[in-house]
Amino acid sequence: MNMIELKQVSRRYGDVQALAPLDFSVKQGEFVTLLGPSGSGKTTLLNLIAGMVKPSSGQIFVRGVDITNAPPSARGLGMVFQNYALMPHMTVFDNIAFPLRVRKLPKDEIRRRVTEVLDMVRLPDLAARKPKELSGGQQQRVSLARCIVYNPALILLDEPLGALDKKLREQMQFEIRRLHARLGITMLNVTHDQDEALSMSDRIVLMNEGRVEQIATPDELYRAPRTAFAASFIGTANLIAGTVQESGGEHIVVSTALGMLRATRGVNGVSRGAAVNLLVRPESVRMLPATSGEEAQQEPRHAGTLEDSITLGSVVRHHVRLPGDMQIVVQQQGGRHGAAHARGAPVMLDWAPEDCQVIAQD
Ligand SMILES: Nc1ncnc2c1ncn2[C@@H]1O[C@H](COP(=O)(O)OP(=O)(O)OP(=O)(O)O)[C@@H](O)[C@H]1O
Ligand SMILES: [Mg+2]
């Protein structure tokens, strides 16, 4: 069964179409992330589901029940926000116990449940502290504990990790995934951090200017983006504009500023004369010194100039300038097996047609 289902849901603010009519569903137990740049409509979508914002059109169902006009408190959802919103004068224990006291649970039951969730978020010894005596990551875990303590079937998270440093953020991502797997709670998470979306989600809803650009698993989104926007938002994309010359054979032939290039079909319905983009990921490009005597394995090879190389831990990124003022990013393994090249050196690039895919032009 679908935990959440949206039918033609949209939201306008005056002239601003914050969200274009959207169909979308989340299955029970799924971890789905809304990903997109600032202003793309992520919080609007989350708030529509939470009931903080009313839709301009459409219907929202939770477990098959139409809750479009239900108040937030009647929806039975948990919400975790970016700012922890803990009550400063209460201890950690009382903060977490709060939603249970509101629900008038017996005292023993409250103590048992709070102790259990404090264990789950790995803060068993901090029950007596006040929020200001905790680190940001610990406060974040308390907010999460306060949310899971009353067993909501669905939790909405709006950039809850945005304020944390990278290391803590990765640790919390892991904690949330662990809780998700253990408790089977359906989670809908908002972020503009692509790494977070890729590492945590069963599926990603990629949003752009109030529209859904693509809904796919992290792997699909990286390997088979449908648009140039999706290709560039997830990872790094080399995009080469061109016009389809032949589309009937094993490979599609596209005429580009780099000459005729062979590519595989990324999108359907590519016909002769269509304006397309070719996508080549940096790790699929091979770079050799121009003087290398190595036999060409792929044709064509592209002569260029190495502009700079940046070491990113285990990998090295090279920026190569090709004729026609085109820049191609190349990623290679670093360490002692990686080849060193001088800045300004002439180099040769090539890639396999299988690693060059046709996507739509935006
Ligand atoms: N209450 C409001 N009144 C008018 N316009 C609004 C309101 N809330 C949001 N918007 C507009 O709707 C669009 C989507 O906003 P939303 O907050 O959903 O974006 P977002 O994807 O969450 O962005 P961010 O990553 O910056 O949080 C934006 O253009 C925003 O200015
Ligand atoms: Mg937002």
Structural notes for this entry:
The protein is of the alpha+beta class and about 350 residues long. About 25% of the residues lie in helices and about 35% in strands. Helix 3 crosses helix 4 and helix 4 (about 135-150) packs parallel to helix 5 (about 165-185). The two termini are about 35 Å apart. Adenosine-5'-triphosphate binds next to strand 2 and helix 1. The site of adenosine-5'-triphosphate (ATP) has 12 residues, from strand 2 and helix 1.
Map the helices and strands.
Elements: E1 2-13, E2 16-27, E3 31-35, H1 42-50, E4 57-62, E5 65-66, E6 77-80, H2 92-102, H3 107-120, H4 136-148, E7 154-158, H5 166-183, E8 186-191, H6 194-200, E9 203-208, E10 211-216, H7 218-223, H8 228-233, E11 238-246, E12 252-256, E13 259-265, E14 275-280, E15 286-289, E16 302-312, E17 315-322, E18 326-333, E19 346-350, E20 356-360
Parallel strand pairs: 3-8, 3-9, 6-7, 7-8, 13-20
Antiparallel strand pairs: 1-2, 1-4, 4-5, 9-10, 11-12, 11-14, 12-13, 14-20, 15-19, 16-17, 16-19, 17-18
Helix pairs in contact: 2-3, 2-4, 3-4, 4-5
Bound molecules: adenosine-5'-triphosphate and magnesium ion (MG).
Structure, briefly:
The chain folds into two domains: 224 residues, 3-Layer(aba) Sandwich (Rossmann fold); 119 residues, Nucleic acid-binding proteins (OB fold (Dihydrolipoamide Acetyltransferase, E2P), Beta Barrel). The protein is 23% helix and 36% strand.
Q: What class do helices, strands and sheet pairing give?
A: alpha+beta
The name CATH uses for the topology of the largest domain is Rossmann fold
Name the CATH homologous superfamily of the largest domain. P-loop containing nucleotide triphosphate hydrolases
**SSE order, as H and E?**
EEEHEEEHHHEHEHEEHHEEEEEEEEEE
Largest sheet: 6 strands, mixed
